[in-house]
Amino acid sequence: MIINGVQIDDTFAEAFPMRATRVIITAQNLKWAYHAANAMTGFATSVIACGCEAGIERELAPSETPDGRPGVAAMIFAMGGKGLAKQLETRAGQCVLTSPTSALFAGIHEGEKIALGKNLRYFGDGFQISKRINGKRYWRVPVMDGEFLTEETTGMVKAIGGGNFLILAESQPQALAACEAAIEAMKKIPNVIMPFPGGVVRSGSKVGSKYKALNASTNDAFCPTLKGQTETDLSPEIESVMEIVIDGLTDEDINKAMRAGIQAACGLGATRGIRRISAGNYGGKLGPFLFHLRKIME
Amino acid sequence: MIINGVQIDDTFAEAFPMRATRVIITAQNLKWAYHAANAMTGFATSVIACGCEAGIERELAPSETPDGRPGVAAMIFAMGGKGLAKQLETRAGQCVLTSPTSALFAGIHEGEKIALGKNLRYFGDGFQISKRINGKRYWRVPVMDGEFLTEETTGMVKAIGGGNFLILAESQPQALAACEAAIEAMKKIPNVIMPFPGGVVRSGSKVGSKYKALNASTNDAFCPTLKGQTETDLSPEIESVMEIVIDGLTDEDINKAMRAGIQAACGLGATRGIRRISAGNYGGKLGPFLFHLRKIME
Amino acid sequence: MIINGVQIDDTFAEAFPMRATRVIITAQNLKWAYHAANAMTGFATSVIACGCEAGIERELAPSETPDGRPGVAAMIFAMGGKGLAKQLETRAGQCVLTSPTSALFAGIHEGEKIALGKNLRYFGDGFQISKRINGKRYWRVPVMDGEFLTEETTGMVKAIGGGNFLILAESQPQALAACEAAIEAMKKIPNVIMPFPGGVVRSGSKVGSKYKALNASTNDAFCPTLKGQTETDLSPEIESVMEIVIDGLTDEDINKAMRAGIQAACGLGATRGIRRISAGNYGGKLGPFLFHLRKIME
Amino acid sequence: MIINGVQIDDTFAEAFPMRATRVIITAQNLKWAYHAANAMTGFATSVIACGCEAGIERELAPSETPDGRPGVAAMIFAMGGKGLAKQLETRAGQCVLTSPTSALFAGIHEGEKIALGKNLRYFGDGFQISKRINGKRYWRVPVMDGEFLTEETTGMVKAIGGGNFLILAESQPQALAACEAAIEAMKKIPNVIMPFPGGVVRSGSKVGSKYKALNASTNDAFCPTLKGQTETDLSPEIESVMEIVIDGLTDEDINKAMRAGIQAACGLGATRGIRRISAGNYGGKLGPFLFHLRKIME
To answer: Among A93, A124, A144, C230, which has the highest number of CB atoms less than 10 A from its own CB?
Structure first.
């Protein structure tokens, strides 16, 4: 399969089950909603070392938020419910409760309820006030700038982590340009985040290492500088490879995001140095979610 | 003391010793240097819950970076050297090694050496190459987009955490406007970071709580909505209080940042609703660094 | 009428007929689409002195643009068709044709056709190539970075200029905060632009002046510093007034934008210093479009 | 001459005399200073069609501005003093006087005095107040959000327009990446602006055209798509060319900016597709300022 001169490999991305939640952060204006959301979703690129994977999903108009103020939706993914709840509580307490003019609400109402304001409320030292509106419980916690308004719980649902594709290009600036195009397009798809810095990861890894203490190491088959030293998967004209990793609520969400991203990357085309799209997998052993590139792009 | 109609309290901020390091992150352009630096310094508002306090110190011209590319300087503060080294390694590994086109260098050459590329290099699975230039050791680690270049070590120095001041205003938008003015001015001072979201914290705390499990709770004496329910420190016209916390390398650095910030906040003046500047302390018991507001503003 | 403690005056905004067009600017990524669009819509706050009023309407996903690349929609308003065509040609030629990687397309297909690429094509010095796709004519103009692709014409439609409302607050930072909230909300409404810097104008004018050469001068009745010197329209607690001007395709579009903006401004409420919403008019003489605040907010 | 694999042509940029001024725009915060400055310097890429060339020179700390607030310095260039004065007055009146919380000051004190607030003051309709501080005259003009403070005059000095260099690359994304690196570096050099969108122009022109009404047309010798149809100046591997135009106060300023920009572009190197740096000139006939690339890069 060839799109605009770019080869789509006959391969698949392999993804695994996670748990996810979404919260809505509002503030006096979008700038401060982003300050809180960026802090809360920072240092959250990979669940193993960071405890979760997190990102901003999208911007919300005042008409879309519970308190009629501007806001953003942020999503957090973890391997299990307990870890997710812990990360949510710590990150919300450190980065949203603290942030000027902010309020914090549930962004999913399905699934299992996990604590949002339920534990944060104790910061109020007994001065907090419970409020019930339309069957939902909120907390008003007195803080120095006024009150921190937060919903009692948010929903936790099943989700999928590790959707991905690789962009192979003739040079680093071209690979980066294709990634930027892909990320811009993917940000407009709901229910997904791309957890790495700017949405892109350039240090793809293989399982195992010659150093016993390490579980993972550089994916030498995809490193352009190692073409002569290892069994490479790269043809001579490929000089740079970048990967986009996607976490999403359902396989359909990840499908849509991968499709939008690959389409945008191929938009630059072979004449602008984009040569091949591939994906990372573990031979289908990790599973159970497989995203076949060619099926997605049909 | 009155500046532009704003009362400067006769009080002091109380700060404590920390350990700090600075790193330089470069990339193909500033946008991607910021992506890496924002990820690395995210979720780092308060050392107790986040493991460190971190922030971007400033933007660097190509002529100021080791590899002649655009970059940013980021600083990380922790309670001790071991914790700092651990946070640096994990955050650099997850957020800079992974980030497209990035390189990572020491930002301080004094003090004790701590690992920067020294451990990250093992990701290269034996393909990494050591390089010595002008007496400094670097590592070239093969990654998918080319190579990750990183310096062997960076310096760790004594530092100070917890410099702070409070802005008391007639309304929340006014307090926020004064904080924005203060943060813009403080960002131009070297050797300091303001670790909270957007540089500001609105949930000041007191030691202790009526809930035994909690060590800290809302500073009710500074909560405008609690004026009638607690022994308040606020006069009737104060309706919003925000705090700026500063970590810096020396007390002179924190002095300069506090001075610039208070000056900028007072620039709005009493006619724009800014009424009082105060500071948080523990009666001098925590110490040993005391920052007297009036001495700073003389 | 009172919303969240804010008085809505029993008055109306008065607007007048204009001509408008919309164009779509695409580029390699959004950053460069914005560079071109910001340049093209700069210095375009008021039609009398700038020749047109212009602004960015909204961001476009690749799936919404003719060439499948990221883009933005920009709108230009002028008093008549001839002036509009001239402004469009000059601004597109100076700011979009020149901008790296850009392409330029029609953003309205109704109304009268006016030249877009039709005249710009001559820059190609005879090397330009015509292309017809789905009944539309395009030009491919050779430039140094490759080709400038542009559509032959765009549509010009009837439109309305001068929708507006005033925010009256207890202080300048509060008025500004309410304007920021209003503008964020209004940017999400289609078919409108707010042509002043950041969407806001603080120098409202009255017709006439004591200096004969001037047709307009400061609206002294709304200047807080002139309360003692002129017949003021401001009560003692009002210390700052800001205005938002809206140009839109239809009165329904301006209605929606005014509603969203006033709602957002009132969201801050009287407790945050927002006291009154008013509007500017000429006693109904300029007309013919009248926007009654209370009818809009019903 | 070869830098990092990139050929530096043995040629020169040719520039011509202009007049220039600098103004300082301050506001409640940087965001609003930028709103005013971006509006004022918009649609100002080329003096012939826009009336002037303008751009933001740099950001200013509160300690660097006359009123101790955050600000930006903007520069305007025109062919003669009369045109410059007219552009300054119109643009300042439409884009700075109108912009919430702004103030406007001289940014150069040498040279001939031209009107800044001198004419804008009449907007105050007789309510404006003159103020003399340290020998400089200011005007306080009552406006709806409070007062517009502006200095009576600013300085106009001799300047140079049309410094430039060309970046020749193997593909459009690579040329763009090199331009972004160059612009980031050049923005840190004082006394210069790069007036095109994002600092870059991709539609280089030659004098004359086959259409008699046109004075300039596409520089076909540098258009990659015309290699087979015209006498090209491009070797087969060059597929994209972009230009950076610089206006500056002195030839030394332009020298420094060109040097910083070329250095940064060459930083990407031949391995990332950057192959050649050239410059635009008229055979030395336009003059009188010649910038020899190899001399600059020595």
So the answer is: A144
